[in-house]
Each structure stands twice: as structure tokens, then as C-alpha cells.
Amino acid sequence: MLRRGSPRRSLALLFLAVLFFVIPLLVVMAQTAPPPSVRPPGGVVVGEPEPPPVNILPEDSRSDIWRKIRRGEPGTVSIPNPLAGQLVQSEGENWRTVRQGPYRAYAGWFLILVIVLIAVFFILRGRVRVEQGFSGIRIPRFNFFERFVHWLTAISFIVLGLTGLNMLYGRELLMPLLGKARFAELTMWGKLAHNYLAFAFMLGIALIFLQWVWFNLPNRHDIQWLLRGGGIFGGGHPHARKFNAGQKLVFWIVVLGGTSLSLSGLQLLFPYQFSFFADTFAAFNAWFGTELPTELSPIQEQQLALVWHGVVGVFMIAVIIGHIYIGTLGMEGAFDAMWSGEVDLNWAREHHDLWVEELEAKGRVAQPAE
Fold it and tell me: What radius of gyration do the chain's Cα atoms show?
């Protein structure tokens, strides 16, 4: 019998521990493969090489799969967003090349050309003066609500135009002057203003149409006005009612262009919710026999909306630059119409004689004292 604390008892316990714990642990460690992060020495083969996987179901070759991906063919995904099934969209590369290249260049040169032409016209023609001088008699032209709608639309469009041009050219023109931090802050606030003031612009377009569409329907005097260039050719001022042919052109450009801008802007504000271009192309194909594509993906719709929004926006900016020139520097007495709502009688007779005759027939024009 072993005594407590005897050497034999200690050796027996040590033997049992080695037998039941240490030896099994060494056996398990010897049979376990090294972790993947541990690389065996060169030339040492650990285990047998795994055979290549065998697919029991037929599938396309790797080259066919990548060819389909490169073409933009969508697959299936388990996440809620089905658009993620399209890994590559080749049109996006073309869109980026056009937007960063000729799109920006042509738009910029077009605006510069418009400004240069207006400057040359002003140098050659000068300011259009009131030939008979101011009479001192003021007649009402636009009431408060008409002026409110005009300035609502004008101010919102100016902000939209400036913030839109900043998104198109600001990185090259403003960021070197302001620095990255200030430019980023300016662009962030500009983007917010662009998004929310768009609804004020849409409201203004609708109100402008409702209050002035009757006065902007074409009539026989408009053809003569256009042929004489508004008085540039032939001498004298051609006949005109409340709005002449030039003002009617601006009206319809603003209404139709503003509506188009609004629709494409809504498509950009709420992406993948509308298919305006596919529907428009389908209507063109039905009406004119064209073969425009109608099977457009949501991403293609967004790309077309962005390009169209910029093209129409730049064109309208050019038109409004000309409109601002005529209403301020280009024509004496014109700005009063939208500022105070009244114009001088002689100015009205020279530019809108038929309208003045209508007011006189209704007794709304004060006669000058003899």
C-alpha cells in the first residue's frame, strides 16, 4: 500500500496523467492539418492534392458568363434590390465619356458664344431708346400677382441655373479659388437649393401658363414682326398686341422647356420610379414610324434623363440671358413693366401699339393734358 507523500504515489499519478491526457493530446495534434495561414517549407507536400470540383449540372463556360456580364445581361439576386443583378452596365462608360468630354465642352462654348453675340449686338445696335421720349403718363401693364409669378419663376430658375452650372463646371472653375472644403460646402448647399427650389420653379411654370397663355397665342401680326426682326429691318416698330412675337417665343420656350426640365428633374429626384423616355420613344414610334428603343433599363432611363436635363437647361439659360438683356440693358423703359407694373405711354405705343389701342377703347389710358 502506497503511503501519502511517498515517491511511488507521485510517480503513479504522473504516469496516469501522461497516459490519459498528454499522449491523447499529442495524437490529436499530430493528426490535425496546419492552419491555412501557416505555410509549410518549400518542397514539402502536406496531404493529397484536392481534385478539381465536378459539376453534375451543365453550365456555360467562364468566358460565356463574363461575356454576358460585360453585355449587361442581368442575373438574379437574393437581396431586395433587383437592380443589383446587373454587375456591368456598358452604357455607363459611354455616358461618362460623353458627359466629361464633348457634352461639357459644347455646352460651355455655346454659352460663351451667346454672351459674345449679345455683346457684339449691343456694341453695334446700342440701347433701344424711346424715340418720342418719356411722356410722364404711366399705364398699368402687369398686376401684383403677375409680377409675383414672374419673379417666383425667374429667381428660382436663376438659382437652379447657377447651381446646375456649378455641378457641371464648379470642380474646375471654383474649387481652385475656394479650396476643397469651401467648395464642398457650397456645392452641398447648392444641391439642396437645386432640389427644393425646383418645386417653386414648377409652380411658377404652371401659373405662367395659366395666366398668360391666352395672350401668347399666335396671330397674323406675329409673322410681320418676325420678318422685320422686331423693328431691326425696315425701320419703325411693327404692330403688336400685349405680347409681340419675340415675347411669345420666350413664353413657349419657358413653358415647354420648363415642363421638360421638370419631368427630367423629377426622374432624377426620384430615381428608378419613372420611364418617361421609354414612353416618349414608344409614342414617337407610333406617330412618326421611327425605331427608337423602348426596352430601356432603369439605369438607362436615369442616364438619358441626366443628359437631357443638362441640354435643355443650358439652352434655357442661353434664352434667359437674352431675355434679361432685352429687359434691362437692351431696351429703355422695359424693366419697369416687371418692377413697378407700369410703363410709360410712349414706350407702350412704340412697342405694343395695338394693345394701347385696346386699353384706350376701354377707357383705361389717361389722355395727356393739352
Answer: 38
Tell me the one-letter amino acid at 209.
F
Q: Residue 5: pLDDT above 70?
A: no
Give the Cα separation of 330 and 323 in Å (integer).
Answer: 9
Mean per-residue pLDDT for 121-131? 93
Q: Which among 158, 242, 239, 170 is positioned nearest to 201, based on CA atoms?
A: 158
Averaged pLDDT score across all residues of the chain: 85
Give the C-alpha separation, 108 to 101, whole Å.
Answer: 11
- Secondary structure in 3-state letters for the chain: CCCCCCHHHHHHHHHHHHHHHHHHHHHHHHHCCCCCCCCCCCCCCCCCCCCCCCCCCCCCCHHHHHHHHHHCCCCCCCCCCHHHHCCCCHHHHHHHHHHHHHHHHHHHHHHHHHHHHHHHHHHHHCCECCCCCCCCCEEECCCHHHHHHHHHHHHHHHHHHHHHHHHHHHHHHCHHHHCHHHHHHHHHHHHHHHHHHHHHHHHHHHHHHHHHCHHHCCCHHHHHHHHCHHHCCCCCCCCCCCCCHHHHHHHHHHHHHHHHHHHHHHHHHCCCCCCHHHHHHHHHHHHHCCCCCCCCCHHHHHHHHHHHHHHHHHHHHHHHHHHHHHHHHHECCCHHHHHCCEEEHHHHHHHCHHHHHHHHHCCCCCCCCC
Question: How many residues can be counted in the chain?
Answer: 370
143-201: pLDDT as tens digits: 999 999 999 999 999 999 999 999 999 999 999 999 999 999 999 999 999 999 999 99
Q: Residue 11, Cα to own-chain centre: how many angstroms?
A: 87
Most confident stretch, 12-16, 97-101, 204-208: 204-208
**Residue 288 scores a pLDDT above 90:** yes
- Grid cell in block for residue 149: 409669378
Residue 120 grid cell: 457684339
